[in-house]
């Protein structure tokens, strides 16, 4: 898109993007944005311990996820709510994790925004340890490559991995790219370069030309893309996916340029290290991904002020409703503290479970087990 | 509540049923360990009994056979690491596997421990069963984050939907003449992590049975081998030569039965302790029971406690650093579970609390030796 959000060369657009699909992208970008602001506030009110918003990066998440296939395997950092949403996570799924209730597939074990989505949307559980997900994607891609070799009738799949430009300084980034290149794994490395790693600006994160310049060093085809332009993101990811599957598989590196409009997390106050003028520049219709897509939709007469207001109001209502419902749900069964450390409960863990149950039964007034599914019986 | 997440002594005293002590091995087998260990020169230390189908195997051959059998049995198994394919492994453990199984199943990697460990974990999270070889566990420090934070925790943190069937293996612990960054024992590091299983084979049978069990186990397993054992030969029973042979985790092996003192030990120190036990028998007529832990997580506490009930004395022998180590753990557990059965304070022999020195004389002083074990046991028994 040009700076006034008109597509300059329509012939470069894939034929498979009907208007309804673009409207769905817009709806998802809005949903992430509104959910983020509500949950950020909810944290301030003490309803959850922590939250991270993704304002400014909605197009990166939604556009790239839209270009991947449903069966592709994804590993994320922590700011990729839009990827989860675009792949079928529902508000209820987000809220279940954020309130760590009994419907959270992660069984309430992980801090907020660390979603576990392997079963529902093919996204590995989010880890706090930066960079670890990058070689995991290489490994997942290796497994997919083996699968394709064994059974050529299966639809070929890729792995995709999201990470920040800060995480790309970790050794795991190097390990993952070098391994993927030498083993020719069908994996798309998606760097979200949002300019900051907490307070560290990209200019202090590296001295080279961003992350893209590293690709050629590994022998990996690379593309740098405007991450606020959802069409560019979508087309780049689509092309990357096609290339990743060529010649029996190979890695591709994408660097999406955007800006982290909000604070790093609820634990951060970014006014300490950047000016409000700088941030304001990114909230304009030339730079903000949601405003950009909205303008495009309005040019095409697919959208209007009133529709926008209506949709935003509805999303707000839905998010608040789902949050309330999720808060009312019971917490995961107490047995979840012991299970899944190993595939089978160990003898020692079983002994401890029984002992905990004995003590809780003896001193019921000391423990609030009623908030957990099944109460004491859930242990 | 955290108090409850540690075993309470009360728990053991009341309800635990202890497994029967397995029969001791015959003396003929044990005679093999009479020769003292000399750094760097390992030869065949026992003899074959062809009539009963027992064969001599080096630990290296046993590991190689285990890998070959598991690669053969399950398409999902593959092995990767530095020099494992073309070069047949830094210690030749993967000899012949590339030729037999091809480059898709036996993979040489760049020198990127965090990268190939991460790849292996990613592949495991996607349903394959990788065997990740570290040239030595010293270099696994480059990827300790992947092992601890990714492999060990993902099943739990994903809510039980992402199992990680992976085996990490390679030489660990004492190695001779290679200095502090090549010669140290990481048993306690891995042994303290919930989500990991950790085994420490000594003999060829241990090596084969434990490695095969590790590859089949749905959890991440760390197999801590020892470089100095690779070339040692041990008798391998007919049953152990078969492809269905596995050794269950969490079961220690009584290598030598005795009534006067219990020595609990692991890996290379098992052989040293057996030699010391023979010498104590010869010189003092003392019967030492030697327990080879085989697996340190899960730990076979029952066999240890059962033995202490019989001998009333405990000595733990290991080559790790003394602080917060395997022996610290066993002594603590003994206090919790077997204090009333002890006639003397439980003792331990460990590596020295210094980075492993290179100079041979200093190096020898930094690790348990047969003489030291013998002397210390004699002191404990007031001989
Ligand atoms: C191994 C590790 N080191 C440090 C941290 C602390 N930490 C959390 S987020 C973060 C910044 C990451 O920045 P970037 O990768 O650019 O992603 P962004 O937050 O901008 O999306 C840091 C340093 C961590 N979680 N893990």
TrEMBL record, chain A:
Listed InterPro entries: Alpha-ketoacid_DH_E1_comp (IPR050771), DH_E1 (IPR001017), THDP-binding (IPR029061)
The EC number(s) this enzyme carries: 1.2.4.4
Endpoints of the signal sequence: none
Top-level taxon of origin: Eukaryota
Domain Dehydrogenase E1 component: 27-333
Cofactor: thiamine diphosphate
Enzyme class of the recorded protein, top EC level: oxidoreductase
One Pfam family this sequence matches: E1_dh
Localization in the cell: Mitochondrion matrix
Keyword Cell membrane: no
GO CC entries: mitochondrial matrix
GO molecular function: branched-chain 2-oxo acid dehydrogenase activity; metal ion binding
Catalyzed reaction equations: N(6)-[(R)-lipoyl]-L-lysyl-[protein] + 3-methyl-2-oxobutanoate + H(+) = N(6)-[(R)-S(8)-2-methylpropanoyldihydrolipoyl]-L-lysyl-[protein] + CO2
Any GO BP: branched-chain amino acid catabolic process
Keywords associated with the record: Metal-binding, Mitochondrion, Oxidoreductase, Potassium, Thiamine pyrophosphate, Transit peptide
Family: Belongs to the BCKDHA family.
PANTHER family: 2-OXOISOVALERATE DEHYDROGENASE SUBUNIT ALPHA, MITOCHONDRIAL
General function of this protein: The branched-chain alpha-keto dehydrogenase complex catalyzes the overall conversion of alpha-keto acids to acyl-CoA and CO(2). It contains multiple copies of three enzymatic components: branched-chain alpha-keto acid decarboxylase (E1), lipoamide acyltransferase (E2) and lipoamide dehydrogenase (E3).
Name of the protein described by the UniProt record: 2-oxoisovalerate dehydrogenase subunit alpha
TrEMBL record, chain B:
Role according to the record: The pyruvate dehydrogenase complex catalyzes the overall conversion of pyruvate to acetyl-CoA and CO2.
Classification lineage: Eukaryota, Fungi, Dikarya, Ascomycota, Pezizomycotina
Location of the Transketolase-like pyrimidine-binding domain: 57-232
InterPro entries attached to this UniProt entry: PDHB_mito-type, THDP-binding, Transketo_C/PFOR_II, Transketolase-like_Pyr-bd, Transketolase_C
One Pfam family this sequence matches: Transketolase_C
The organism's place on the tree of life at top rank: Eukaryota
Keyword Protein biosynthesis assigned: no
Cofactor or coenzyme needed: thiamine diphosphate
A GO CC term attached to the entry: mitochondrion
Protein name per Swiss-Prot or TrEMBL: Pyruvate dehydrogenase E1 component subunit beta
One BP term from GO: pyruvate decarboxylation to acetyl-CoA
Gene Ontology terms for molecular function: metal ion binding; pyruvate dehydrogenase (acetyl-transferring) activity
Protein localization: Mitochondrion
């Amino acid at each position: 898109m040009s700076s006034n959000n008109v597509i300059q060369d329509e012939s470069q657009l894939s034929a498979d993007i009907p208007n309804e699909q673009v409207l769905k992208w817009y709806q998802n970008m809005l949903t992430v944005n509104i959910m983020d602001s509500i949950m950020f506030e909810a944290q301030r009110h003490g309803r959850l311990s922590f939250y991270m918003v993704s304002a400014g990066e909605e197009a990166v998440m939604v556009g790239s996820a839209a270009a991947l296939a449903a069966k592709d395997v994804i590993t994320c950092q922590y700011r990729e709510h839009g990827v989860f949403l675009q792949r079928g996570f529902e508000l209820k799924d987000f809220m279940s994790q954020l309130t760590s209730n009994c419907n959270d597939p992660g069984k309430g074990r992980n801090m907020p925004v660390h979603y576990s989505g392997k079963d529902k949307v093919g996204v590995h559980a989010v880890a706090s340890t930066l960079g670890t997900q990058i070689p995991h994607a290489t490994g997942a891609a290796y497994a997919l490559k083996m699968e394709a070799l064994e059974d050529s009738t299966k639809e070929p799949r890729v792995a995709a991995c999201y990470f920040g430009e800060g995480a790309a300084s970790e050794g795991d980034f190097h390990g993952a790219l070098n391994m993927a290149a030498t083993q020719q794994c069908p994996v798309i490395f998606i760097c979200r370069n949002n300019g900051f790693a907490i307070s560290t600006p990209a200019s202090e994160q590296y001295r080279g030309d961003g992350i893209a310049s590293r690709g050629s060093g590994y022998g990996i085809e690379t593309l740098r893309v405007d991450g606020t332009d959802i069409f560019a993101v979508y087309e780049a990811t689509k092309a990357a996916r096609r290339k990743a599957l060529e010649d029996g598989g190979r890695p591709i590196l994408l660097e999406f340029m955007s800006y982290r409009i909000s604070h790093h997390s609820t634990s951060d106050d970014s006014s300490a290290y950047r000016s409000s003028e700088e941030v304001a520049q990114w909230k304009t219709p030339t730079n903000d991904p949601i405003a950009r897509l909205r303008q495009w939709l309005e040019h095409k007469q697919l959208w209007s002020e009133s529709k926008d207001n209506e949709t935003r109001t509805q999303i707000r209502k839905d998010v608040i409703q789902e949050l309330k419902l999720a808060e009312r749900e019971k917490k995961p069964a107490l047995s979840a503290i012991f299970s899944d450390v190993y595939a089978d409960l160990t003898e020692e863990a079983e002994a401890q479970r029984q002992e905990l149950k004995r003590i809780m039964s003896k001193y019921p007034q000391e423990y609030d087990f009623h908030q957990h599914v099944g109460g004491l019986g859930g242990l | 509540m955290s108090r409850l997440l540690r075993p309470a002594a009360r728990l053991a005293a009341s309800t635990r049923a202890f497994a029967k002590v397995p029969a001791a091995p015959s003396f003929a087998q044990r005679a093999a360990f009479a020769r003292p260990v000399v750094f760097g020169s390992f030869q065949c230390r026992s003899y074959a009994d062809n009539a009963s189908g027992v064969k001599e195997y080096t630990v290296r051959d046993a590991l190689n056979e285990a890998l070959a059998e598991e690669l053969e049995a399950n398409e999902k198994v593959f092995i990767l690491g530095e020099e494992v394919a073309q070069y047949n492994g830094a210690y030749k453990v993967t000899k012949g596997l590339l030729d037999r199984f091809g480059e898709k199943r036996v993979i040489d990697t760049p020198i990127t421990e965090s990268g190939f460990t991460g790849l292996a974990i990613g592949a495991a999270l996607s349903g394959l069963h990788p065997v990740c070889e570290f040239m030595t566990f010293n270099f696994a420090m480059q990827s300790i984050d992947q092992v601890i934070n990714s492999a060990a925790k993902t099943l739990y943190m994903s809510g039980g939907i992402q199992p990680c069937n992976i085996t990490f293996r390679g030489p660990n612990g004492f190695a001779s003449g290679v200095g502090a960054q090549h010669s140290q024992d990481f048993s306690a590091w891995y042994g303290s992590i919930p989500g990991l299983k950790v085994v420490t084979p000594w003999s060829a049978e241990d090596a084969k049975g434990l490695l095969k069990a590790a590859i089949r186990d749905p959890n991440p397993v760390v197999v801590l081998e020892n470089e100095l054992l690779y070339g040692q030969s041990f008798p391998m029973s007919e049953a152990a030569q078969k492809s269905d042979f596995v050794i269950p985790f969490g079961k220690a092996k009584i290598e030598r039965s005795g009534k006067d003192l219990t020595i609990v030990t692991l890996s290379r120190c098992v052989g040293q302790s057996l030699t010391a036990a023979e010498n104590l028998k010869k010189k003092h007529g003392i019967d030492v029971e030697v327990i080879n832990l085989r697996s340190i997580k899960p730990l076979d506490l029952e066999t240890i406690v059962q033995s202490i009930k019989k001998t009333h004395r405990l000595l733990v022998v290991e080559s790790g650093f003394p602080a917060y180590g395997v022996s610290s753990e066993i002594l603590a557990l003994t206090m919790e579970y077997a204090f009333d059965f002890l006639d003397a304070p439980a003792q331990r022999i460990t590596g020295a609390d210094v980075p492993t020195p290179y100079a041979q004389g200093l190096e020898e002083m930094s690790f348990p030796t047969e003489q030291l074990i013998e002397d210390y046991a004699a002191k404990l028994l007031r001989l």
